[in-house]
Amino acid sequence: MSSATDSPAADVPVAPEKIGPEATEADARAITEAARETSWDRPSFAKGLYLGSFDLSLIHPWPEARMEDVERGEEFMGRLTAYCRTMSGRLIERDSRIPDQYLAGLAELGVFGMKIPREYGGLGLSLVYYGRALALLGSVHPSLGALLSAHQSIGVPEPVKVFGTAEQKQEYLPRCAAGAITAFLLTEPDVGSDPARMGSTAVPTDDGDAYILDGVKLWTTNGVIAELVVVMALVPQHTDSDGTVHKGGISAFVVEMDSPGITVENRNAFMGLRGIENGVTRFHQVRVPAANRLGREGQGLKIALTTLNTGRLSIPALCVASGRWSLKIAREWSNARTQWGRPVGRHEAVGKKIAFIAASAFALDAVFELSAEMADAGQKDVRIEAALAKLWSTEISCRIADELVQIRGGRGFETADSLEARGERAVPAEQQLRDLRINRIFEGSSEIMKLLIAREAVDAHLAAAGDLASAEASLSDKARAAVGASGFYAKWLPKLVAGAGMDPRSYTEFGRLAKQLRFVERSSRRLARQTFYGMGRWQARLEHKQAFLGRVVDIGAELFAMAACCSRAEGMLHTSPEQAATAYELAEAYCEQARVRVDEYFDQLWRNTDDADRELTEKVLAGDYTWLEAGVLDQSEGTGPWIADASPRASVKENLHRKYR
Asked: Catalytic amino acids?
């Protein structure tokens, strides 16, 4: 190996020997910052929203797909729909497993290669049709959506397609397209969104031909049945025989799951997604050819984050399916069930829930389709849009599922099998609630997503503030930074005083929705001003004001959804004129509901209990209130440690890995 195998020094800001259980907060921050993509070569609508720049031209007119993509996508959706009608989600739920014949049938349809280019045997579908296919499959059973999403959005195909060599693409992509299931292995028992604590290692052999992989990976979606996996592991600093020193760092490897030394030690079970093939995988002295490394040493986290930029759109697509199904069930049930002489849907208490579901279902569709269309077009930077779509969609869809259970009453809490056994329609409302809950944790929890988005949202402020935003800077450095920042803000702040949102003639081409867009524009400038006030008030401490930053992100998410709804409705005037009038009604309904939430978020930026809550939390953690925990029995005591031991060693458990083909 030569020094060309190394990432630039800036990409490896923390020495490999400092990564692990003893990593500091500064180490974790440095690693995350190094992995973050900092350049903005293309415009971003969502980034502009946070800076007070509402550029509607970036999302309107609605992006148009290529006719070839539409024709191939529609043809595939027809075949997939026919096959989906032959599958039983109830069977998957009862057996907690997707039947092998279903997997074989999906492979024959080319489903495992939906995003893989046709030159490698894939279908080469657009992100829009890939998402629509996931939504359809998820409506059969969400485990199908999870399987395909983990395989194609973050599994082997995407990182190989983007970062792989010509040889790697030729070797792996045709296999994946033909049905070789793959997985992405980053999480460890003590490593979630903090890779600075990573314990898995990949030590180069003396001859440089391979790496020896050791470690334990947790929550390996698809790992139980995968043929190929992408594994993130720490390469230590090492020296070639010619004296060349390599920095090492967290790196990515494609690993064959039938390699000696790999053991799937557990198939995990969860409250939902009963058919998911998720496990614990141990690697002990696994030899991985050097040719299987993706990218350079130390580039692993950049590969992971880049893959997730558009990969995160798979979950919003699945949320679209839940919104549509929930609306159908809510409508049919609320017309069929009578209470006090009227259908339950005619009572306002239930009607408001139906209105929320209907408006939110339209918004879910608009947010996904807009984000996916922009990603397909490739002319905009959609990393914030994709992150917002994931965050917002998972939160709103969980609320939809909860409201559907409430509308259904006792039947919403009852299982589909039980309903059918006593002669009623087998509606799995409670299952949907269980299945959707993981989406707020998958691929970055809502809390982590807010921090990631907030980091991008305040990036311009941090760049302008310089040492003002650094806790380590000296007073003299801060003074110099203040002079530089004043120049930036002197030009930027006046732009936030007035805008199109204050002109009643703005956006008139949107008809009745024009006032909603004026609200979005005004709110975008207001949001930028409030963020500036927070920056001025807390400076370097702003990064610790996570509740404040979370509300900033939530406001931007709602504004993005509102704008997407308006663009979607107006665009349907041209593409689906027969549905345009009702689309306008749904868009307006969502915007009116969202405006209430936005106003509440703005109010809570400065009127909240954050400081008192932080003090209370410190006392809880210190044990000041343990007396309040008396009077109950904790049945989990003595069942095991909070975090399982992941130290390197040979496995002593049965290998649960299996193949479906």
From this structure: 443
